[in-house]
Amino acid sequence: MASRVAAKVTRKTKAVADSIVHPPFLKLIIPAQQARPAPPLGPQLGKADRSYDLVISHPSSMHLLRMAAAAKKGASSPGTEVCGRLSLKHIYHIAELKKQDPHLFTADLQDICKMLIGTAHRLGIEIVTQDDIESGKVDYTPSGYANFLQDREAYLKQKKLETETAKQSKMMRL
After folding, report:
1. Could you tell me which residue ranges the Large ribosomal subunit protein uL11 C-terminal domain spans (predicted)?
2. Using CA atoms, how far apart are residues 134 and 38, in angstroms rounded to an integer?
3. One domain, residues 147 and 70
4. Computed from CA positions of residues 74, 76, 80, 83, in that sequence, does the dihedral angle turn out positive or negative?
5. Closest C-alpha to 81, from 53, 122, 47
6. Which of 74, 73, 69 lies closest to 93 in space, CA to CA?
7. Has residue 58 got a pLDDT over 70?
8. Does the structure show a pLDDT above 70 at 99?
């Protein structure tokens, strides 16, 4: 008698476990060729009828802005430090690319440009206008930008050296 009750309870718990409904969508950022169909990701991907919808969008705005500015990483203090420069033309082209994403498909191009400018400021990327270039405030020629990137590289090496010496001096005190 007890075994029948136990069997009934296990069948009920299995039925409850099988009827778990997952949310209709799952938002992930996975590096290329690193998604595996193993837990915890695998069971979340499949639906009860074993169908799936896969939406692939463009790279993140931060990645596109850094690539356009030729900056390996963003500024450590974005308000005072500049890690790269972009013109409004670059912003417009990135906005055209991002407009093709499903979540930005209905957004206005001007709003996407404003969003990208805000993201660029948070990364420490300076937005250069045509007035800045014409007035000579910023040297936006290819050779001028190459000099800027070399100066930035030297600055990063100096900053890395300073942090390493600070760490070494801290270790010596201990």
Report:
1. 59-127
2. 56
3. yes
4. negative
5. 122
6. 69
7. yes
8. yes
